[in-house]
Amino acid sequence: MTEAFTVRWTQMSEGTRDDYQHLDRLYRDHSSGELAGNLLATFRLLEGPNLGYQIDRARHSRQSATRALRNGEPTEFVVAALFHDIGDVLAPDNHSAVAAGILAPYVSEETTWVIRHHGLFQGYYYFHHLGGDRDAREQHAASPCYDRCIDFCASYDQNSFDPRYDDLPLEDFVPMVEEIFTRPPREYRA
After folding, report:
1. Which contacts qualify for 117-122: CB closer than 8 Å, 24 or more apart?
2. Hey, what domains does the chain have and what are their CATH numbers?
């Protein structure tokens, strides 16, 4: 199939099964070849102001991923640690859900759950200083992913703001990112 295929219609309601099968193949071919690179480019938008911390958000995320890698976590969890705050670029008030949405088709349900809830669970370390409930995470105590999320925040997130930590450069994570984001999305796996 070449990219020369173009639909004849201007309204989706006029499309045929053949049209949508062609479009689906073109889209999948394009996205599988571009997704990892697009995510890495978006990750670089985390570089910049420290916003009061000793390091920027890109370095924080690399530290999280480096700690996960050095602790022997599965590749998908290392990549999730790398991208756990990528939503800060587009939706700072909903960054956990954005990151989880990006990861969800490519990682396990447990990893998705941890990333989706890490913002709330991370609040254990500071909500009470801002007049909030540091135990807000308890609303999820019955979840089978609860302890994993507590561990993620304790082991890879809240402790990854250290300018002296020898985190790995982004380039060291590229093969892992490509491995995760070039595999078929979960809903299409055989």
Report:
1. 117/145, 117/149, 118/84, 118/149, 118/152, 118/153, 118/157, 119/95, 120/96, 121/149, 121/150, 121/152, 121/153, 122/153, 122/157, 122/158
2. 42-184 (1.10.3210.10)
